[in-house]
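ok new one. same drill as before - structure tokens go in, u give me an amino acid for every spot. 413 of them this time. try not to just spam alanines like last time pls lmao
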């Protein structure tokens, strides 16, 4: 194909040439093997901003689009280990009267996906246009996967990227995220760009490029975009794995836990509330904390789960307890190792069509900053039997209590 040859020669592709490749893939004129070659070339050679904007437009036009609604706020994360903020932020905002939607994906590599988490408790996530609006009308919130109607091209490309090691390209991430946000009609969009060892984006320079690119794409379609750069060196919170993450989100909503996950969710919800209601961030934070304390946000999540046919059940598996071989303060926990372990336990897909074990995953009993004695249980593993020596490599100890860095690095708008 002449377009692929051009990519190989690192030449710029026109709108039509990109369309021939990508829409050709959607229409099965290009097979998985050829498309993998394209994705690998993009990862290696990059795309210009103009090509990325064109690619976003091709993704958007591959399906139906909903009209822009300026009061619609949407939130998205580039994906991290243990990231269940959506399950906390959406009910907080919905309980405060903000209408909020999320178009979401399944897990990418070792980072979990919100859709898989909701699937684990039977919540319907594949929604028609009518069902999407019904949920918003009834509960103020909705979480929906890329359906065959909205961005079907992203759905197909995303699944292939997941199993071909082509997740880390900035143009591919920007076009994938922004096409879904724009097609779903969101007028205001907040994107949490995870930065660090357990994230798709490993350093601040790349994160800033991605932020500026997504803001530029948003502006082209008259959307207001805010990007938060947040740390993902250690897993977020203590539960990793689908049903386990739902349990932790509920603990935060019931105001039973205070950790980095809560800090991030409160800040994110506050920025989004201020963004939507045009108030100060302090006023927004006051409201957010109120609905966490009075259980309004918790009740909102439960009513959404029930509205979409889901049910919360405790996981029944017996875990394997991992006991520490060392003593000291936990200095860091490598989120990539934890994410990969969780995937091997059955919580993620190694191949495109693998079935997920929704109960599988890791619970970090000891987290960064905690003191551990030799023999203390540091974490629990749920799922398949696997060789678990690697988990010891995830935990790093020090004799002095580590300095705690703020989970939020920067907000760009
Ligand atoms: N989330 C998306 O929707 N797409 C990506 O490429 C990465 C994270």
């Amino acid at each position: 194909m002449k377009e692929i040859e051009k990519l190989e020669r690192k030449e710029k592709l026109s709108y039509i040439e990109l369309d021939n490749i990508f829409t050709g893939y959607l229409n099965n004129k290009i097979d998985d093997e050829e498309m993998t070659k394209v994705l690998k070339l993009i990862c290696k050679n990059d795309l210009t901003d103009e090509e990325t904007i064109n690619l976003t437009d091709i993704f958007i036009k591959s399906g139906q689009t909903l009209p822009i609604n300026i009061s619609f706020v949407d939130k998205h994360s580039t994906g991290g280990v243990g990231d269940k903020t959506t399950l906390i932020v959406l009910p907080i905002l919905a309980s405060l009267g903000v209408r909020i939607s999320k178009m979401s994906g399944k897990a990418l590599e070792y980072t979990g996906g919100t859709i898989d988490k909701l699937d684990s408790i039977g919540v319907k996530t594949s929604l028609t246009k009518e069902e999407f609006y019904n949920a918003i009308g009834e509960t103020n919130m909705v979480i929906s996967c890329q359906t065959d109607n909205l961005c079907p091209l992203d759905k197909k490309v995303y699944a292939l990227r997941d199993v071909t090691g082509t997740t880390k390209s900035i143009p591919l991430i920007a076009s994938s995220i922004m096409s879904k946000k724009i097609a779903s009609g969101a007028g205001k969009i907040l994107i949490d760009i995870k930065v660090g060892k357990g994230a798709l984006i490993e350093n601040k320079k790349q994160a800033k490029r991605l932020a500026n690119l997504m803001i530029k794409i948003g502006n082209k379609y008259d959307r207001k975009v805010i990007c938060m750069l947040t740390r993902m060196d250690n897993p977020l919170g203590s539960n990793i794995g689908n049903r386990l993450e739902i349990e932790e989100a509920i603990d935060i909503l019931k105001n039973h836990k205070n950790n980095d996950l809560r800090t991030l969710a409160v800040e994110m919800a506050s920025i989004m509330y201020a963004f939507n209601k045009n108030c100060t961030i302090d006023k927004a934070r006051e409201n957010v904390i109120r609905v966490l304390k009075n259980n309004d946000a918790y009740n909102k999540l439960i009513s959404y789960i029930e509205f979409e046919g889901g049910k919360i059940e405790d996981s029944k598996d017996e875990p394997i307890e991992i006991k520490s071989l060392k003593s000291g303060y936990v200095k860091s926990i490598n989120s990539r190792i934890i994410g990969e372990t969780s995937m091997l336990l059955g919580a993620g897909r190694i191949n495109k069509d693998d079935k997920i074990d929704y109960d599988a995953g890791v619970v970090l009993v000891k987290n960064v900053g905690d003191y551990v004695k030799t023999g203390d249980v540091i974490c629990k593993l749920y799922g398949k039997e696997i060789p678990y020596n690697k988990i010891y490599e995830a935990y790093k100890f020090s004799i002095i209590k580590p300095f705690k860095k703020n989970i939020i690095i920067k907000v760009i708008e």
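The first helix runs from residue 2 to 8. and btw The chain has a mean pLDDT of 92.
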